[in-house]
Amino acid sequence: MNGLMAGKRGLIMGLANDKSLAWGIAKKLSEAGAELAFSYQGETMEKRVRPLAEQLGVARLFDCDVSDMGALDATFDKLAEEWPTIDFVVHAIGFSDKNELRGRFVDTSLDNFLMTMNISVYSFVAVAQRAAKMMTEGGAMLTLSYYGAEKVIPHYNVMGVAKAALETSVQYLAVDLGRDNIRVNAISAGPIKTLAASGIGDFRLILKWNELNSPLKRNVTIDDVGGAGLYLLSDLASGVTGETHHVDAGYNVIGMKAEDAPDI
Ligand SMILES: NC(=O)c1ccc[n+]([C@@H]2O[C@H](COP(=O)([O-])OP(=O)(O)OC[C@H]3O[C@@H](n4cnc5c(N)ncnc54)[C@H](O)[C@@H]3O)[C@@H](O)[C@H]2O)c1
Ligand SMILES: Cc1c(CN(C)C(=O)CCc2cnc3c(c2)CCC(=O)N3)oc2ccccc12
């Protein structure tokens, strides 16, 4: 317990199971002394989340579908009854119709475009509205993005457009909330085998490609993401806001691998 988060408390949204990026972040925050609350999506998730919450001594659990503004209001109202103020919020939520995360982006439907943007992007803005009202001075928000926001990743499709919107939303929220000294950042994580990833065909190939083509020659883990999340949510990052921080073994910096370059 390095005490970096001693005396701090906050909400982590988007925990599904012990493979979740949210779980990697929750473990590191808890080890650093933070007090946590979890929100999850629906009864099915509750069964998986409760044992994890018990493992970290987390007593506050909220069922919150972030596409339901009433549920968001209820969650933050109930949280405020127990904790008048919070120091951080983690948003680890993204969703699209998996049938449109294959094939071509040009074939994206209006319904799925709107649903994907609502759940994967607007929900972070809606959370920011509610969290900012109960955040201590110096509070911090964190969301999760992916390289598909910056460059085309085959079949990431409308999720890539959503993550681009999410990363720009982080910049606009950082400006609005900076006046209250609330910091807003994103982690752009490399591919990790989670529940959300398990619905994706060829995910093994994506993992292998990243392993072979990243400077560290490995995939990242939820613990890599957790460590960077702890930093961004702690006072160590007191001067960092509006930032999308890559935790991807350096994959995003590669233009061409040296071993692929012709002998020039
Ligand atoms: N796994 C990866 O390769 C990877 C890489 C970079 C970024 N991300 C992002 O990390 C975040 C967490 O995803 P993960 O990979 O840990 O998978 P995950 O399936 O463990 O987490 C996704 C969570 O989103 C929640 N969710 C979906 N729709 C919701 C709704 N309407 N209301 C409330 N919650 C809802 C799910 O319940 C789940 O808990 C997502 O934003 C994802 O886009 C994932
Ligand atoms: C990497 C990578 C991911 C992981 N990642 C970064 C993600 O952000 C997960 C995105 C995602 C969003 N919605 C759903 C699913 C995954 C599958 C299950 C489902 O029903 N809906 O997803 C991909 C989809 C296509 C190509 C690469 C990837």
Bound molecules: nicotinamide-adenine-dinucleotide, the ligand Cc1c(CN(C)C(=O)CCc2cnc3c(c2)CCC(=O)N3)oc2ccccc12
Query: Helicity range of the residues?
Result: 40-55%
Q: What is the element string, with H for helices and E for strands?
A: EHEHEHEHEHEHHHE
Number of helices: 8
Alpha-beta classification? alpha/beta
Name the overall outline: globular
Question: Could you describe the 3D structure shown?
Answer:
With 264 residues, the chain is α/β, with parallel strands linked by helices. The protein is built from 8 helices and 7 strands. Strands 3-2-1-4-5-6-7 form a 7-stranded parallel sheet, sandwiched between helices. The longest helix has 23 residues, at 110-132. The radius of gyration is 18 Å and the shape is globular. The model has no long low-confidence stretch (mean pLDDT 96). Ligand 0WE binds at residues 94-96, 98, 101, 146, 153, 155-156, 159, 191, 196-197, 199-200, 206. Nicotinamide-adenine-dinucleotide is lined by residues 14-16, 20-22, 41, 45, 65-67, 92-95, 119, 144-146, 189, 191-192, 194-197.
